[in-house]
Design a protein that fits this description.
Length: about 400
């Protein structure tokens, strides 16, 4: 990040504010996962139906993006974020008092839609405040909070449920969302945004503009592919361990936690990686590293070894994904919210479809062939994405071809 000390301090404060909001958003998304059987027993519902709470959160999160992006561009990203975390806090409190699965299902849908207005707009707001030179490092700092939120949401909720119950966990998540509301409110006061009414014609024109860019379409496709190929594997880790007599759900959770630690390792190394590899080679290397990690799952029969593979997978994923996120924030300065929203939409559609695609592959061609195919996709994705991003870099192209 460049600029005067005061500028750098303001940017650091802004990233801290976004980090609080991002942590609360991701924490709320993961809390129900370890509590499925507990919630099902309390509400006299089936485990299968309560397991769908994850889908109830994820799909609205993805589908709300094309709506919230243009609103953020028009009325102000922080205004939308503040409204979203307020709604998130209220829906989480209401969830704690749900008396049946239908009510809880609807409230999780509302929570997912509200959480969808935090991270994509946070990325766009960082793009507004940080020059491209320091933006990838700034976004990687934001990612730390997101990764920690994922870890805390899936681990703390299970640990705390015995002491405060699943309803208490939802109240805790609401308190974090309230803290995010306070942080965003204070941040908005320090840096007021100029807003204007939403113009649907302008919003539509911005989406047409974005989708008309070769670089934008490529970036949206990249995150869909990486999400499908990588996150589709996660629900089947316990299956792989059980079939190999190496553990079950508990060991699978510990193994998958390695992915988050890989993300933290990336955040610590990002400056060095950029200095020695540059963005293009880092994307290519990340894809190959993630592919090798997925391929290793074909033979690993110990959860500790799988945890190491997932760490490498997480490092490779974030080498690609953080680069994609950074490039998306530079697609259009006047439509940054719309660009990051579309990006998040494609990513979470990939997250939602991935398990279905991998499950179908396991049934049709076997787990070995499916994992090999996922590894091949990632191995091709990294170098191809790096090449395309280099060739479509607006700084290297005549103005008429940059789009």
């Amino acid at each position: 990040m460049t600029g005067t000390p005061d500028d750098r301090r303001e940017v650091a404060l802004a990233i801290a504010m976004f980090a609080v909001a991002g942590f609360a958003s991701v924490f709320s998304s993961r809390i129900a996962d370890p509590l499925v059987t507990t919630i099902a027993a309390d509400l006299s519902a089936s485990v299968k139906s309560i397991a769908l709470l994850a889908t109830a959160f994820a799909l609205p999160y993805a589908l709300i993006q094309p709506i919230l992006g243009p609103i953020g561009d028009a009325v102000g990203k922080l205004r939308v974020m503040r409204a979203c975390v307020a709604i998130l806090a209220a829906s989480l409190v209401a969830s704690a008092f749900a008396t049946d699965e239908t009510t809880l299902f609807l409230l999780r849908m509302l929570s997912g839609a509200a959480a969808g207005g935090v991270i994509p707009l946070g990325l766009a707001a960082i793009g507004d405040r940080v020059s491209m030179e320091g933006r990838q490092v700034a976004i990687s700092r934001f990612l730390v909070a997101i990764i920690l939120g994922q870890l805390a949401g899936s681990s703390l909720s299970g640990l705390l449920a015995g002491a405060i119950g699943w309803r208490g966990v939802f109240v805790l998540a609401a308190m974090l969302a309230l803290a995010a509301f306070v942080a965003v409110t204070l941040g908005a006061r320090r840096a007021p945004e100029a807003g204007k009414p939403l113009d649907l014609a302008v919003a539509r024109a911005r989406y047409v503009e974005l989708l008309g860019m070769v670089r934008a379409r490529a970036l949206f496709a990249f995150v869909f592919v990486e999400a499908s190929a990588l996150f589709g594997i996660f629900p089947f880790v316990a299956v792989l361990l059980e079939r190999r007599g190496a553990g079950g759900p508990a060991e699978a959770g510990l193994a998958i936690a390695g992915f988050a630690f890989g993300g933290l390792l990336y955040s610590a190394l990002v400056r060095t990686l950029l200095r020695f590899l540059g963005m293009t080679r880092m994307v290519a290397t990340g894809g190959v590293l993630a592919a090798l990690a997925v391929a290793s799952l074909l033979v690993l029969a110990d959860w500790r070894a799988m945890a190491a593979a997932f760490l490498a997978m997480g490092l490779g994923f974030y080498m690609m994904h953080n680069s994609f996120q950074t490039q998306v924030t530079e697609l259009s300065a006047h439509a940054r919210g719309s660009a990051t929203a579309l990006h998040a939409c494609f990513f979470f559609i990939g997250v939602a479809l991935g398990p279905a695609l991998v499950g179908t592959g396991f049934a049709a061609i076997g787990e070995g062939a499916t994992l090999a195919l996922c590894a091949l996709v990632l191995c091709v994705l990294g170098p191809v994405a790096g090449t395309i991003l280099a060739r479509t870099d607006p700084a290297r192209l005549p103005p008429q071809r940059a789009r």
